[in-house]
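**User:** Once you have settled down, spend some time on the protein underneath, comparing sequence with structure tokens, and judge whether sequence predicts the tokens.
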Amino acid sequence: MNWKITVRGFLGLVVSVWPLAAGEAAQAAVDFDRDVRPILSERCFTCHGPDDGTRVNALRFDEEDAAFARLANGGFAIVRGNARESVLLDRVTSNDPVRRMPPGYKGFEKLPEKEIEVLRSWIEQGATLVVRSADPSEATRR
């Protein structure tokens, strides 16, 4: 067996493996505060956040119990470790303007694919949620 590696062979190997390594690194790097919270704050908190005046139903993404509670339809918005079963992913990827979140019929833009992938990766990695209280020292990671 000839183990002599040519420059061309080495570059071919690097080019074929590089996308796999980059994808794994990106997936492993999801952090709630850095990556997920800004998406939820900007895209979801108006209707599903802390403001009683704008919240549309019991689903909240700023409280752990509500974010992981059973929905009226029997499903769960977020199923830790299972993006396929998470209604959140189903809704943000829907092409139906009535079903899609944020709601297209209210003039909201569809989430960019990059943000959807961050949410998908976060859920697949266990959907760790950092709950904030009025006192920043009381933030808990769950």
Notes: The chain has a mean pLDDT of 83. The chain has one domain: 30-141. The longest strand covers residues 130-131.
